[in-house]
Amino acid sequence: MNTASSALRALNDQELDQVSGGLSAFGYYVDVDLVNYGDGEKVHVSWGEEGGSYNYVEVNVGC
Q1: Cβ atoms of 45 and 34 closer than 8 Å
Q2: Which residue, of 20, 41, 44, 45, has the greatest Cβ tally within 10 A?
Q3: With contact defined as beta carbons under 8 Å apart, do 18 and 44 qualify?
Q4: Cα-flanking dihedrals φ and ψ of residue 27, to 5°?
């Protein structure tokens, strides 16, 4: 069985500003951002229900 884990943490205000916004319609939203939390640039894609839970994926950019 494959398992993966990562440490959860709250984003600080500057990091949160990087992933705010996006397009919304019919109670759902999607957002694509280029972010940098201090460990290199990543493409951050999030989607979900407005005011509810959401999913996201982050992919490293470059080397």
Answers
A1: no
A2: 44
A3: yes
A4: 85, 5
- Phi, then psi, of 7 in degrees rounded to 5: -75, 130
Query: Which of 30-35's residues contact partners 24+ apart within 8 Å by CB, and which partners?
Result: 34/61
pLDDT digits (tens, 9 = 90+) for 1-50: 555 555 556 666 666 666 666 777 888 888 888 888 888 888 988 888 87
Give the three-state DSSP class for 12.
coil
Amino acid at 13: D
Query: Can you tell me the distance from the alpha carbon of 15 to that of 18, in angstroms, rounded to the nearest whole number?
Result: 5
Task: Kindly report the pTM of this predicted structure.
Answer: 0.62
